[in-house]
Amino acid sequence: MKKQTTIFLKNIYISFFLLLFSFLALPVDAATLAQRLSGRIVLQVEESGEAYYINTVDLKRYYLGRPADAFSVMRFFGLGATNSDINNFLKNGARSNLSGKILLQVQDKGQAYYVNPVNLRLYYLGRPTDAFNVMRQLGLGIKNSDLNQISLGVLSAGSGTNPTNLGLVAGPGEKLVRFSWKYKNKQYYLDQVFLDSLYNEYKNSDKNYYYPANNPPSNLREAYYGVFLKQRDGDDSIDKLLTDLNNLSNKEGYNEDEFLEFVMAFVQYMPYDFSKGINDPQNFPYETLYTNTGVCSDFSFLAVLILRKMSYGAAVFDYPDIKHSAAAVLCSEKSSYGSGYCFIETTNYFPIGVFPGQLSSGQAGGNSTNWANVFTNSSLGTVEMLQKTSGKIYRGIEKTADVVDSIIKMEKSLVDKSNELKLIQAQLNQLRDELNQVLAEADAYKQKGDWTNYNTKIDEYNVAVAEYNSILGNYSLKLEIYNFDVLLFNKTVSDFYQN
Fold first, then answer.
1. C-alpha distances in angstroms, 118 versus 93, 100, 121, 258?
2. Are residues 126 and 230 in the same domain?
3. DSSP code for 355
4. Domain count, the chain
């Protein structure tokens, strides 16, 4: 009788990785502490209870040591909101995308409210002491070790996350407006002063277009839109605005095409006025800047007037079927509708030339993932091109088209790699079933005391395990590469839409 061979089998741990079919990065592992605490007020409980605000934009913490500090943070990061929005939010709570934001009631006296991320309720921040007390009352305790993971932010004049023209002060009969927007996923702020008297002149002016009954214009809407693209004597608001934007752009080293994109992003990030009715009159660009809010036609007029001031060929794309308007700029390729002009959505951020996926209550939204057709859109209905002028050509569309092409290639590569991983995973599943079968046969021999066949099966099993682990190692490597490509793809798409 052959000597019994006792074989001690090591536990074989087979790791199965989650295959990311949807091209989404892993949210839990990737999330930083600052992202999880975005918009919250934290209290340093292991010290003297020092308070910090975690800014939702740059994810840095800003010190709320004294009432003056809290008030400065409140004004520094405040976003404009209409009376209608504030009243609605006070009654029903704010939208989730405003969680942790500080809202300024720009159509009134600039009253400030903090949107508590816990319940999306608005908390009034009145005087400096009020703001200080509210922010501390809503604070969340945090340990020193956790707090130190979050970078400390400093309020100072300049670019990036800090306002330009921070020292501006509105005098009697003037209004100070703070604009905020993003470009290349970087936050910018700009302060501008506007005259109450000039605003009232525009606001109270006759916004009708008159013509002789026996000599009507060939295109009434063309003529009517022209009324809003004229400035009154003494209105140098666009010139001043472009001067400040140009200075800021030069500090960042942006080229001519990037400067145009930078300026259009300024318009695209202005708050949408959901309270404005469809039959309410359009605003002159000065009104839009003064109130820091508007609808599609208001923003389109402002964008076209700015484009003209910058000497670009410009136009209005009008969509009468859905009562929507957009701006357009003369461009070198990928022109919209074969017009020679590239579409510019003005109610929300989209790269120049790229159409929105949908419209909701007049505002564009829904980032398109149909990359082959981002430069075209038939869902907007009939289009009419109005107020067309010639001028400089925007060539940045060529770079945007290259980015879209690279996204298409990345997406195809991910699909191919995903399919390959599925095949390998199926192969691993089959091998695992075969391993279990061999192990079951070996166990049966063991129960019978048939050690010869048992040892033969164990040898067979171990050879199969080695093959399995080799394939698993290859699978793991390919999955690691795939996951890295997923993260790169997601970042590229996020940067493209500035999400």
1. 11, 9, 8, 38
2. no
3. P
4. 3
